[in-house]
Amino acid sequence: MSLLKTLIISALLCSSMCSYAQCKFDKDKKDDFTGEKYRMVEQRISTLTTYWWMTLEQKGTTYYLGLKNITNNHIGKSVRKGEKFYFKLENGKVLTLEADQDYAPSVYSANGGTQTTIIVKGIADEPTMKELSGSSIASVRLVVGGIEKTHNQIPSRQTEKVKEYASCLVNGK
Hints:
Layout: H1 2-22, E1 27-30, E2 37-44, E3 52-59, E4 62-71, E5 84-89, E6 94-98, E7 106-110, E8 113-124, H2 126-134, E9 137-144, E10 147-151, H3 156-171
Antiparallel strand pairs: 1-2, 2-3, 3-4, 4-8, 5-6, 5-9, 7-8, 9-10
Helix pairs in contact: 2-3
């Protein structure tokens, strides 16, 4: 009987610690004036030789998904409000979002060359967040000034974290 109690207590402790760990956000705060909750996490979705990140955010009841890419060339075009970017899930579904505003690239010299940081963010509804929490990401795509940027090499451990964070946001954890 005591072994059964020990197993049950261990399982409960593990589940509570695991749920706490999976829902640790980079930013998690409440506005002092409005009481509106803001949570955000940035998750790398690439290997060490490619530079892609995904952001998941919640401001009040609004969700946002975003992409950030650092590329080793000069891209002087902005992502315009309304331009689409995509997340293809392993279950075959494609999540399509639109940039919520204009996003100018950040171009700079580094390591004897030129690098460009491209950031885009769009509003995601609850069904989109639920889709994201239920399937791993197979690839992402964004188009900047007619240049298509697609990333297909997303490590499974990183996309699993994206699923966990999407679930945490939707479920209010």
